[in-house]
Amino acid sequence: METQTGGFGENTKFDDDGRLKRQGTLMTASAHIITAVIGSGVLSLAWAISQLGWIVGILALTMFSLITLYTSCLLANSYRSPDPVLGDRRNYTYMLAVQNNLGGIKYQLCGLAQYGNLVGVAIGYTITSAFSMSAIKRSNCFHSNGHEADCHESNETYMIWYGIIQIFLSQIPNFHKLSVLSVIAAIMSFTYASIGLGLSIAKTAQGGEHPKTSFTLEVTNKQKMWSSFQAIGDIAFAYVFATVLIEIEDTLKSSPPETQVMKKASAIGVSVTTVFYMLCGIMGYLAFGNDAPGNFLTGFGFYEPFWLVDFANACVVLHLVGAYQVFAQPIFKLVEEWSSKRWPECDFIVREYHITIPLFGTWSLNLFRSTWRTIYVVITTVAGITFPFFNNVLGFLGAASFWPLAVYFPIEMHISQSKIPCYSSTWMGLKFLSGLCLIVSLLAAAGSIQGIVQDLTNYRPFTSVS
Prior knowledge:
Blueprint: H1 26-37, H2 45-76, E1 80-83, E2 87-90, H3 94-101, H4 104-145, H5 156-169, H6 179-205, H7 222-239, H8 245-249, H9 258-288, H10 306-342, H11 347-350, E3 353-357, E4 361-365, H12 367-386, H13 390-418, H14 425-457
Antiparallel strand pairs: 1-2, 3-4
Helix pairs in contact: 1-6, 1-9, 2-7, 2-9, 2-13, 3-4, 4-5, 4-10, 4-12, 4-13, 5-12, 6-9, 6-10, 7-13, 7-14, 13-14
């Protein structure tokens, strides 16, 4: 067996940490980011702007994109930590980066925030995919039976099918094997966002009386105030990918430096998604006005061109199939590595069975990996069936993850690594940014929780219908 003897020689199979040489590039990292960022969040942006008005809505999109790009570059710097003995030490996960840079209680809080958010995203993607699948069935029903037909569809069956697909895909061993799936998912995200944009432009260009829009934020009643807070949470959810940034960076080749490539990938990913978000949010708001639906793809009446709306919703499903895996892999890795260290002698946990599959080569089967990942998918699917609240769930996930994961920890690690003096102008500026984002996250969380509570008052479990 060939071993590493130092440096990054082309003839070695291993990187400086003794692991198999990483093969990720700027393209694959950008695809992972776009897959993670352009997700179900884009579908709610027209609604978010309708709650905030033109000025505040566009300003919120701009500010979240700039903050996300800045803090992502700070977080990328945390992939390697200086070590007096080992030199630059790799941090394979977000939690490990926080542990090596901040340690203590912050490490535990990071784990709670990160993995809680990853579970929440899996649930949110299950809900969104089911809504898109049921929208396809409803669209065909309206087309066949007329616009007045009763075409309501149960969402539970579609969530179960989505879960079954994820059980099979979850057997992909690790993040390094997801590149093809991420590229396909990224293409799907561009496709449905472009279709939604095109339909919005077409609807706006039809002429006639245009839907009413608001230039400024209009808080006319208490419910409108809560909806405005929730809209901020939806925008925050649309941008957050910090939960998987370090894991994506760990897939990159060692040369050029991972940090350098990751910053470029972040710039590409955030720039591309911001352009799409602006176009979809603005044109969706122009098309529907203050009555914009929570999922703007469902706002075109399910009528004509029904096949194009069907195709867009199919792209949503295909994208979220891949995005689910991007967000699930860090949880899979955490549990599997902890278990193998805790019970290294247990064959059920550590033994790999190599199975030859005709035309596909050799498949490595691990019984614990297969069992645990199946259980995880089942849990997230059942949770999605139990609480199928699209907009409120997205808003809460965005609010709960944006400040701690996308702002607080990246800033704190940057201050620690750069040894920025307390109360210096740089320190004060970073703390002010962190405090401002905390306030925004708290307001967004409050709005989303209020919306979930309101939904629960009129909801019966396992009876979700679109």
